[in-house]
Design brief:
binds zinc ion; about 170 residues; single chain; Cytidine Deaminase, domain 2; alpha/beta; globular; eight-stranded mixed beta sheet; about 30% strand; 5 helices
Length: about 170
């Protein structure tokens, strides 16, 4: 019944988006990610922290940049998070009362997942959402022109990029 209802709401365009974010938070986060590529010389990324709503939607409330929790995270040019960074992340989550609701990283070119992205989900649990911003986040990336992928577990992903704002809604 629940799935019939969500299918029906989907047809009507009334299903809640999976992710939501205030435009001001998104714009600031995206600008920071572009800046942290040091002039398009390396990738950058962030954990997206926030809260869950009862309807299953998740609100992105904060960007925690990889290079802030681990100064070495971007030094190879490709995002690499060391285990030693995680206690710092959990401390931030605890202090703010947030969880990790998604992650985001930039690519030099298009927004498709690399083999390494598929093999190494940032949060290896089913339902985790990974966003990829093309062109070093320089072209005003928004839902509809970014990669949106959901981890299903066991190395499997499903792509939601084409759903645009039905999947990820930026609000005021
Ligand atoms: Zn990637």
């Amino acid at each position: 019944m629940a799935s019939f209802l969500s299918t029906l709401l989907g047809w009507l365009g009334l299903a809640p988006p999976r992710l939501r974010c205030r435009a001001s938070i998104w714009n600031e986060g995206v600008q920071q990610l572009a800046r942290r590529t040091l002039g398009a010389r390396r990738e950058s990324g962030a954990y997206l922290l926030g809260t869950h709503r009862p309807d299953g939607s998740r609100d992105v409330l904060d960007f925690i940049y990889y290079d802030d929790v681990d100064p070495e995270a971007l030094s190879t040019g490709i995002v690499t998070i060391r285990e030693t960074a995680l206690p710092r992340l959990w401390e931030i989550c605890r202090a703010r009362g947030y969880g990790v609701v998604a992650d985001v990283h930039v690519h030099p070119g298009g927004f498709g997942q690399s083999e390494s992205d598929m093999a190494n989900p940032v949060m290896p649990r089913a339902g985790h959402i990974a966003l990829i911003l093309p062109y070093f986040a320089r072209n005003n990336p928004r839902p509809g022109s970014i990669g949106m992928f959901e981890f299903l577990g066991d190395g499997q992903w499903v792509e939601h990029s084409g759903k645009g704002r039905k999947f990820f809604r930026l609000g005021g």
